[in-house]
Amino acid sequence: MLTNRINILSESITIAVSNLAQELKDQGKDILSFSAGEPDFDTPRVIKDAAISAINSGFTKYTAVDGIPALKEAIANKLLRDNGLKYAPNQIIANNGAKHSLFNLFSATIEDADEVIIPAPYWVTYPELVKYCGGKVVEIQTDDTTGFKITPEQLQNAITSKTKMLVLTTPSNPTGAVYSKEELTALGKVLEGTEILVASDEMYEKLTYEGEFTSAAAVSEDMFKRTITINGLSKSVAMTGWRFGYMAAYDTELIKATKKLQSQSTSNINSITQYAAIPGLDGSADADIAMMKKEFIKRRDEAVELFNAVDGLSVLKPDGAFYLFVNIKEVSNDSLTFAKELLETKGVAVVPGVGFGSEGYFRFSFATGITTIREGIKRIDTFVQELQVK
Ligand code: PMP
Ligand code: GLU
Questions:
Q1: What is the CATH number that goes with domain 61-281?
Q2: Ligand 1 pocket at CB < 6 A
Q3: pTM of the predicted model, to two decimals?
Q4: Taking CB atoms and a 6 Å cutoff, what residues make up the pocket around ligand 2?
Q5: Residue 390 has what pLDDT?
Q6: pLDDT computed for residue 193 by the predictor
Q7: CA 359 to CA 320: how far, in whole Å?
Q8: Parallel, antiparallel, or unpaired for β 323-327 and 92-95?
Q9: CATH class of the domain whose range is 4-43+286-388
Q10: Alpha helices of the chain — where are they, by DSSP H?
Q11: Which ligand is nearest to the CA of 350?
Q12: How large is the average pLDDT for residues 141-167?
């Protein structure tokens, strides 16, 4: 009954682990979950107020498929102010979360075994959507010895005549790696003279802790023309449940194509969310963002120190996002079993590295309170020491 296309798709492992942890908690079990890729903070007041005012003003009807003009203007202004990128309204579309942006983008551009280069470890959704659209995933493996970043040589070696797209995530989920302007420029140079598109997922932009954040499209005119910039507000202003993301591209035909797809699938995104997103984009929530960022830095620093004190584990200090990608190679070469047993015996939920295309690690989200983090790492320490004496 089911199509081949749907049968090859795997469920999101990040969501699966988070849901399992929640189910166990609901059954009354003592579970500490570090699996969720969502901030534990509340959505800022200014955003909630904009939503309430939209409801009270009756902005509860269908809108333009790609977003109301005020929202598109706010996105364009944000991209110019924060990223130095000049996009016109017809180069921008609002989607139901950045995941939906990626779905629309891949649907409009990938087919017939087109090759998509995805640096690993990667966020779980990219390879699945590429496969769903009929494309072929070409992984470039990275590890903690190179800061989880690809080099221009690795990129060059991965390119074939079938390469359609490169996916870049900066800051990265799951490693927190952030590409510098120089690194992005060097990668861009490799692509010069090709037709290869770049999907630049900048979802964790506002959670860059070290150095300056640079958009891939901002490093050269050539990169601006080939890059599709994807972003949203799920992480920066804790709006995961509101479902808002967007993409911007130089090629107006590409945006038009995704709008056509959206017009026949989801239509406009929730009208209330569109009004609420504006203060998330225009700087009105900057103080909230700064508060969350400060707290994430504190948690990151303490969690990194605690993990590196555990005999058998090691972790790099991430430059952005709210994840640690912890190396377990000294104690296990099977991250799925490691994570399963950790959950069963110690009630601690983490996401196995294998789900992100990199065996020998687990992802630990520090988007949770510091006392929970301390207790969680203590339990992980006990688990790892017990593993070593087995
Ligand atoms: N990109 C990355 C790298 C992510 O981690 C996520 C996590 N949800 C998304 C995109 C999608 O976010 P959303 O659909 O909530 O906008
Ligand atoms: N992106 C988040 C994560 O990596 C949310 C879950 C998902 O959308 O896969 O955990």
A1: 3.40.640.10
A2: 37, 97-99, 123, 169, 173, 201, 203, 232, 234, 240, 245
A3: 0.96
A4: 12, 14-15, 37, 99, 123-125, 173
A5: 67
A6: 97
A7: 22
A8: unpaired
A9: alpha beta
A10: 4-7, 13-26, 45-56, 69-83, 98-109, 125-132, 152-158, 181-191, 221-226, 252-263, 271-281, 286-308, 335-346, 370-389
A11: 2
A12: 97
